[in-house]
């Protein structure tokens, strides 16, 4: 469905050249659900805009839905749906008319456009807002209308740029339900961008981690997490002295790495470290701690998260980047 080679996009910004996308090779097969995950400014939107023909590549190639984005942009556009970050909906129409008109624009006959409009308004819970002016919709309703507009012609390939930004948890769950149904019933291929770690993890079957204009990792969330060295084991102790003894004990656990004493104001002291199969080493660890005279107050094992993946790859946390 998508094949890019050395896809690149530069922007001139005054005297500077911003290398927003620096030569990416992306292959997405039919029916896949892929998330581009990366911090703000990583190049996700720029990549998506090139794939949807909204932006010309500086160099490299991209074939989308069987057609080259540069040589046959109209062919590409007919076969894809795109929901951007901004509001695509116009200003002075009722939501229902806006959606219906979009259907006609995509070449649907009036009966089909009307039927799909009704279906989408219902599925995206826009029924109550259908006869309101687009300008009078709430942020969440406008977002859902944008999404409905991207779906009206039932594209085989759907691009969603930060689809759940601005949606409340209920609408977000609805959106994913709708997308799951599209895929089940029509085999739609879906490519989305997100900087929500948990969303990429829960929703996407495959995650492309993008940073500074490059794809730095590509795989299922589980496969990416398996590359992070081990689970995080953490236990808390009565005081810092006990934590130091506990840390020495932890260092003797086979395959333990990054053992550190946690001593931060306002937090219980303790120890954390990484280890293969944390749940398997716990029984031995507890016995050894007992033998060393340390009685842990709490013990926990945490599987790696996609943030750990990003941290391992870049030395930075996606959460910190988002907080900026
Ligand atoms: N029209 C433009 N002119 C100049 N620089 C641009 C332009 N569009 C994007 N950039 C720059 O290109 C880089 C990549 O931006 P892009 O919007 O693709 O990132 P992103 O990963 O989608 O981030 P976000 O999640 O914030 O949308 C950024 O440094 C951005 O400032």
From TrEMBL:
Principal place of residence: membrane
PROSITE patterns the UniProt entry points to: ABC_TRANSPORTER_1, ABC_TRANSPORTER_2
Pfam families: ABC_tran (PF00005), DrrA1-3_C (PF13732)
Subcellular location: Cell membrane
GO CC, any one term: plasma membrane
InterPro entries: AAA+_ATPase (IPR003593), ABC_transporter-like_ATP-bd (IPR003439), ABC_transporter-like_CS (IPR017871), ABC_transporter_ATP-binding (IPR050763), DrrA1/2-like_C (IPR025302), P-loop_NTPase (IPR027417)
Gene3D superfamilies from the UniProt entry: P-loop containing nucleotide triphosphate hydrolases
Membrane topology type: Peripheral membrane protein
SMART domains membership: AAA
Keyword Ribosomal protein found: no
GO molecular function terms listed in the Swiss-Prot or TrEMBL record: ATP binding; ATP hydrolysis activity
PANTHER family noted in UniProt: ABC TRANSPORTER ATP-BINDING PROTEIN, DOXORUBICIN RESISTANCE ATP-BINDING PROTEIN DRRA
Identification of the protein by name: ABC-2 type transport system ATP-binding protein
Species for this entry: Nocardiopsis aegyptia
């Amino acid at each position: 469905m998508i094949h890019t080679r050395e896809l690149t996009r530069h922007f001139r910004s005054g005297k500077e050249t911003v290398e927003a996308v620096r030569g990416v090779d992306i292959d997405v097969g039919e029916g896949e659900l892929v998330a581009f995950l990366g911090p703000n400014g990583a190049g996700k939107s720029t990549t998506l805009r090139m794939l949807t023909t909204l932006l010309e590549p500086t160099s490299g190639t991209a074939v989308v839905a069987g057609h080259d984005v540069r040589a046959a942009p109209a062919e590409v556009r007919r076969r894809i749906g795109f929901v951007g970050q901004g509001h695509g909906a116009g200003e002075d129409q009722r939501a229902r008319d806006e959606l219906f008109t979009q259907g006609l624009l995509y070449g649907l006959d009036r009966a089909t456009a009307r039927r799909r409009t009704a279906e989408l308004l219902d599925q995206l819970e826009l029924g109550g807002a259908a006869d309101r002016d687009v300008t009078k919709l709430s942020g969440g309703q406008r977002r859902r209308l944008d999404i409905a507009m991207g779906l009206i012609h039932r594209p085989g390939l759907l691009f969603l740029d930060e689809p759940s930004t601005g949606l409340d948890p209920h609408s977000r769950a609805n959106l994913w339900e709708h997308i799951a149904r599209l895929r089940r019933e029509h085999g739609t291929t879906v490519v989305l961008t997100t900087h929500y770690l948990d969303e990429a993890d829960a929703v996407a079957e495959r995650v492309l981690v993008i940073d500074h204009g490059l794809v730095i990792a590509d795989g299922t969330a589980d496969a990416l997490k398996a590359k992070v060295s081990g689970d995080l084991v953490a236990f808390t102790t009565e005081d810092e002295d006990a934590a130091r003894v506990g840390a020495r004990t932890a260092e003797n656990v086979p395959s333990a790495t990054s053992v550190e004493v946690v001593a931060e104001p306002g937090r219980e002291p303790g120890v954390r470290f990484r280890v293969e199969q944390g749940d398997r080493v716990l029984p031995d660890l507890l016995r050894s701690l007992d033998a060393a005279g340390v009685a842990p107050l709490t013990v926990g094992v945490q599987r790696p998260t996609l943030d750990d993946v990003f941290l391992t790859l870049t030395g930075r946390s996606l959460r910190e980047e988002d907080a900026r």
